[in-house]
Amino acid sequence: MQIVTNQFQKEIKQHGSDGFPFLVSHERLSKYEAGSFLWHWHPEIEITFIESGQMLYKVNQLAFHLKTGDMLFGNANTLHAGEMKNQQDCEYISITFSPRLIYGFYQSSICLKYVEPLTQDLSLSAIHLDYTQEWHTVFAALIKEMIALYENQQNFYELEISIRLQSLWKLILEHYTPANNASAHDKRDYDRIREIMNYVEQHFHEKITLEDISAHLHLCESECSRLFKRYMNLSLFSFLQEYRVERSLEYLADRNETVSGAAEKCGFADSNYYAKVFAKIKGISPSAYRKKLMVQ
């Protein structure tokens, strides 16, 4: 299993309904191939609550080590991915909602004064809530109440959830300091990052060079590399390797596919090199990984 996205890495899954765009889902990393979900984004806010285990959660260029009880507020439109920490599984609850549940209608006073200044602040990709500040405890209580309300769905539950969302948003604003360093330039860079990821998704099975990607973005090669490294905190080459390895997992799960065939279908011309890269990233050889799948 893996998160389904469109060609721009946007998650396709609907978060709630059109009438009430709010979703609570219980997740665990082990249900994803190799215990990780790939980079994606969506226009909704996402709050992650760790029930057990640990997770390395990446948001744009930042990485957070989340432990049991921790929460992460993920801003709208941010690129994010998650993976196991120290090979430990992680169970977590994902709460996803549209900002319009806060502001009601576009360009309302609440929208302009209290919501857009936060959701459009490109410097605020995420907030790690780990109880190091008193307000984190209040935040956690609101989250747990909303989870219970959503799961029981008794009379007025949508209204009760909306009331708590308002309180949660006010709590964030009271402790949020605008950085005032985001700009149209930042937005353009994030759009370029998504375009790079889209290109990799469309061509990962082919030979890809830095020249190909930079030409696609109409950037020089050095600027393309610098841009990706700055925002994603890893090199473009490393991302391409990791993406190819992740995509090869579906082929390894196919009993009729050979390891060398899985390598070739994911852009590795040399199966020995594929095995070396796979072991470096996953800590296990492709053959051993396949054997583990077959006994599960």
Characterise this structure.
The chain is an alpha+beta fold. It folds into 2 domains: 22-174, Jelly Rolls (Sandwich); 184-295, Arc Repressor Mutant, subunit A. The chain has helices spanning 100-103, 109-119, 134-152, 157-174, 184-203, 210-217, 221-232, 236-252, 259-265, 271-282, 286-295; strands spanning 22-28, 36-40, 45-53, 55-59, 62-66, 71-74, 80-84, 90-97, 126-129. A 5-stranded antiparallel beta sheet has the order 1-8-3-6-9, covered by helices on one side. A 4-stranded antiparallel beta sheet has the order 2-7-4-5, with no helix packed on it. The two termini are 15 Å apart. The model has no long low-confidence stretch (mean pLDDT 86).
Q: What can be said about this structure in brief?
A:
The chain has 296 residues and is of the alpha+beta class. The chain has helices at residues 100-103, 109-119, 134-152, 157-174, 184-203, 210-217, 221-232, 236-252, 259-265, 271-282, 286-295, and strands spanning 22-28, 36-40, 45-53, 55-59, 62-66, 71-74, 80-84, 90-97, 126-129.
